[in-house]
Amino acid sequence: MTLNLKQKTKKNQGRFFIISGPSGVGKGTLVSAAVEALPQLALSVSATTRAPRPGDEEGVSYHFKSDAEFDELVKHGGLLEWAEVHGRRYGTLSSEVRAALDEGRDLILEIDPQGCEQIKAQLPEAVAIFIAPPSLAELKKRLEGRATEDAASIERRLRTAEVEMGMQNRYNVVIVNDNQHEATQSLLEVISAGLSEQAPADGDPGDAS
């Protein structure tokens, strides 16, 4: 685990943790464990143009938007990032995230590396955490073990993963998910360290190093 949490935020502002990494590396499991262990940490709720499914709840599962509403968000810069997946669009609402952080609430978001880069360009104070597999061979084994995709799809994901793993040095923290328990503990340590940081208020002297 590599640790670098030098970003400064406004005093009393919430922290934003972005969890990213290749498909199949176990991001979702780690995020769920973090939210369960740290009650003050809330999931950032994304916007989507897909229709609600049984059990979905507006503002909890997603913020459900029509295509026209999503177009307006894109046009007027209302999204920190967005992408199209299987014909439906997904994005992170700028107003939702900024309001939560200004109110002192702490957020966590699971997203792909491309989306993470878009968010960091707008919110450089966000803590970007890369979850890496021990190796591409182990990642392939995990993808095959899910038995949800054919061989061609797995190979495409592995090619993408190889590129994404080359982006690790752009992140504040890198955690290798070799052992789920140990990776969870490492993530909790990183988030707890970020939450305990006391950044100086605007105009106050801070660490210039």
Task: Give the SSE map.
Blueprint: E1 16-20, H1 27-37, E2 41-43, E3 47-48, E4 63-64, H2 67-75, E5 79-85, E6 88-93, H3 94-102, E7 106-110, H4 113-122, E8 127-132, H5 136-146, H6 151-165, E9 173-176, H7 180-196
Proportion of β residues?
A: 15-25%
Mind telling me the CATH class? Alpha Beta
- Which regions have little confidence, pLDDT < 50, spanning 5+ residues? 198-209
Q: H/E order of the elements?
A: EHEEEHEEHEHEHHEH
Largest sheet: 5 strands, parallel
**How many alpha or pi helices?**
7
Structural class: alpha/beta
- Predict the CATH topology: Rossmann fold
What would the average pLDDT be, to the nearest integer?
88
Termini gap: 22 Å
Shape: globular
What does this protein look like?
The protein has helices at 27-37, 67-75, 94-102, 113-122, 136-146, 151-165, 180-196; strands at residues 16-20, 41-43, 47-48, 63-64, 79-85, 88-93, 106-110, 127-132, 173-176. With 209 residues, the chain is α/β, with parallel strands linked by helices. The chain has one domain (16-196): Rossmann fold. The strands form two sheets. A five-stranded parallel beta sheet has the order 2-7-1-8-9, with helices on both faces. Strands 4-3-6-5 form a four-stranded mixed beta sheet. Helix 1 (27-37) crosses helix 7 and helix 5 runs antiparallel to helix 6.
